[in-house]
Amino acid sequence: MAVVELEVSIPQDLSAIKLHQYQKYLSVAKGVDEEDKNNEFLNLKALEIFCGLSLKDSYNLPVSAFESILKQLSLCFEEKTDLVQRFKMTGSDGVTAEFGFIPNLDKISFGEYIDLESYITDWDNMHKAMAIMYRPIIGGKNHLYEIEPYSGTERWEDVMKDAPVNVALGAIVFFYRLGTKLSKYTMNSLLEEEQKKGSTAFQQALEESGVGINQYTDLLEGTYSTLTQLPKFHYTSA
């Protein structure tokens, strides 16, 4: 039998995996019965999505190579994910842009707050959440930077599909840990600001949308475990 030689691009860490790849994998996994989560179909889809291997190429891999790749993917998803304050991405046009995490959370706008609450609990919409949390840096340096004003997710949501998945995971973990403090502080600040204006529209908007301090905190705690359940690939090597 002829030896099959393949060039395989294997991610060495989570920064080499794009958000849209992880979203695609999760979408595939949703269609697999819980009892079959470790079946070979998901292994093959993992190699296709994360390594670019076709089904035919995966079948032609030596067993040792197949299991070695799966083991490396498992190691990637065992990484600790810390908050990434700023990161760079290069577009298909060759232009590199640097994105920064919201630098001053106590000044987050009501629009950012409501949109983030809507999107951050669902991996299918995580690119939209990323477009809220991270925007192009337009001034400053190091940790003292300014990002583009928020005007909705449309401008950057598709770009964020190419963001490294470790950035998204780090932001999710950060918001969960900060959840209670952030929600209480932010909502109190927003309420105080609107009360100074003598406006009741803000409170009415909260009631109509169902958003509040307790709801937001419970939402983060209830979805955190689901959002951070990273895949464990099935291989037989000891």
Could you walk me through the main structural features you see in this protein, from its secondary elements to its overall organization?
By secondary structure, the protein is of the alpha+beta class. Helix content is 50%, strand content 10%. It has nine helices and four strands. It has a four-stranded antiparallel sheet. Helix 1 runs antiparallel to helix 2 (40-51). The longest helix is centred in the last third of the chain and has 32 residues, at 165-196. The protein is elongated and about 65 Å long. The two termini are 28 Å apart.
Give the low-confidence spans: 208-213
Question: What is the number of beta strands?
Answer: 4
Strand order of the largest sheet: 1-2-3-4
End-to-end Cα distance? 28 Å
> Structural class, judged by helices and strands?
alpha+beta
Order of helices and strands: HHHHEEHHEEHHH
Number of helices: 9
Helical content stands at 40-55%
The fraction of residues in strands falls at 5-15%
Shape: elongated
Tell me the radius of gyration: 21 Å
How does the major sheet shape up? 4 strands, antiparallel
Report mean pLDDT, rounded to a whole number.
80
